[in-house]
Task: structure prediction
Amino acid sequence: MSDFTSNFWSVFVTALTLIGIIACGILLWMAGRKKVMATADNTTGHVWDEDLVEMNNPLPRWWVWLFVITIIFGLGYLAAYPGLGTFTGKLNWTQKGEYDAEMAKAKAEIEPIYARFASMKPEDVAVDPQAHAIGERLFMNNCAQCHGSDARGSKGFPNLADGDWLHGGTPEKIRETLEKGRIGNMPPMAAAVGSPDDVRNLSHYVLSLSGSPHDSLRASLGKSKFVACAACHGMDGKGNQALGAPNLTDDIWLHGWGEAAITAMINNGKVNQMPAQADKLTDAQIGVLASYVWGLSNKPNAAR
Amino acid sequence: MKSSERAPRKVIPIAAASPEPSAEGEIVSLYEAQKKIYPRSISGFFARWRWAMVFLTQLVFYGLPWLEWGQRQMVLFDLGARRFYIFGLVLYPQDFIYLTGLLIISALSLFLFTAVAGRLWCGFACPQTVYTEIFMWIEHKIEGDRSARLRLDNSPWTFEKVRKKLLKQFIWVAVALWTGFTFVGYFVPIRDLGGELLALQGGWQIFWVLFYGFATYGNAGFMREQVCKYMCPYARFQSAMFDKDTLIVSYDPERGEPRGPRVKTVDYKAKGLGDCIDCTLCVQVCPVGIDIRKGLQYECIGCGLCVDACNTVMDKMNYPKGLIRYSTQNGVLNRWSQSQILRHVMRPRVLIYTAVLVALCLGMLASLTTRTPLKVDIVRDRAALSRIVAGGKLENVYRLQIMNATETAQRYRISANGLDGLEVASEQEFDIGAAESRWVAVRLQIPYGAAAPGSHAIHFDISALDNDGKVSEKSIFLVPR
Result:
């Protein structure tokens, strides 16, 4: 009730509720005592529109007890649960408490299931049918938004099923990625490379690394400019997983393929982020998820 | 003891009619204390039909959950797994339309039966009536008939009275609990339920057994006609479905009035009396405690017991039967014969109800028999609208929920059509377990440039390899600019 600066509304609500209940009780009591005149033909004697008469059809007495029960229940409820302004109720029930209790209960149910996976090797977890089903659901709820429901990503979001890894593809590395997140940083390199024409030549050289369609003349001219890139991507262009620098020779293009896309990348750079999941998922969940992701590109012999 | 109990049945008490309220009126409360009704038991045409319906409905209700279909319960509504087994059918929550259809058919049947023959449902098939009848039968067996019960209730608490009351309550509770148990047995496999209850497992199951048992006990043992009079909406809107050609339990006032006691040897007609000897047997047998001689009343559940009672009396008096009879308002008024009454059954509202009902039943039957035991929902991937992949292909991703509505594991093949060069790039065949559903990710590809930018209508064809189950579902394929 911190939204309110005074306790006026609390008092108002409490008074209104209690007066309402008391009024119901008084009405019930008065109606129970009231007597009416019923004529011989069991009508109330009221006549409208010449011949329309009102029958005397008394309510059964037990019906009154339903009202009484309702009132007693209402008072009992208000005593036990929060309902009267700021009064918290004798049971001290809160929505948050309910939520916490349910979460604790769910946790107690889930823990033994995860405990089994914790003692297994990540590679074995990947082929466990139950772990696979759990991993799939975790992936759908937490990863599919960016990486797609088939884990094959899209532009800017890496494909997790192709065996190509920016930061390493062992279960341990995947786990690290999940826990801490990753930031891929390609700085703008236009100044280091030279003139726009140099950048264009360099693009064609980069395309030539993976045997993609390119202008071989421009590629040979751009080769010398690759020195600027080699610090991260390596002299051979095969990248560096320690830095998260992509392999440029494997014809996998996270941010677009072709001269225009590569030129733009050299000129503008790019910061791409995988958010950390450690505070969102439990350690056990991350373990199962890491094994699931690893299993997407590593099909062990065992059938799933 | 026994002879005195039986004696009242054979004697027709000739008693004065209930005293009329004074002409000046009286001061009454707005509420009425419930007057307990002690219906006299009666045999006859309608009483036999009522018992036939009790046996029919209760054999189905109590028996059905025990029948097996293959390896499972024949009728089981598994709420936890959300699968509904009815004979050979496996229904998913997605089949909810069938429940809607069933409810509409039930409602229309109620309209039709009411228009033709009044409250047949209330008198003969409604659980409230049926269980009340069963409970009353138990009461009758233990405490005796109407007069014996009246005497017992007015007598002081003796050992005999306590014994009878306890025995009655014990049997009532047993029947009620068994009813609750059977009811829950439609939702939890009934053959395991007993053991689970004895081991005090499953809090909700115990709760529902007790809850439904308590409802049966309270409604059939104590509330009885009060439920029909004050709770059931049907009694209140029946007048909207009645007309003057609806068959109802009717008293023939022209023939019966003026009513009055008489000596059998004296010519009552000469004394100006009608056929009604005012024995009030029709009131005594009435389970809702009304006097049918006052005409059609909303409390009347149309059970026809007063017809049986009156016919017995008419027989004894050597008067023709049918002073109270199943007839229509027009029939009584115009002194129609049986065939004349039946001829008026065919009236527009009856024909329309029948036509709609038959059409609905046929539609439902056709839909159920031609139903494909396979359902598919298609959801486009939430992340990637469209992507370019190796090999110069354009790819869209879909998630398919494949629901196997058979009781054997099935292998399904997925194909996609509707665009040139459209093909499934991911796995094309999936195994789905018996009565299971599974989400699978499916990738569709077209060669880059094979379709104009924009949205293209396509459809998935999913077919079972082992049977002829085949489903076609629409979706779209997006091509970026």
Summary: Confidence is low (pLDDT under 50) at residues 1-22 of chain B. The CA atoms of residues 399 and 441 of chain B lie 5 Å apart. The interface with chain A takes residues 20-34, 226, 229-230, 381-385, 387-390, 395, 397, 399, 426, 439, 441-443 of chain B (CB under 8 Å). Residues 159-184 of chain B form the longest helix (26 residues).
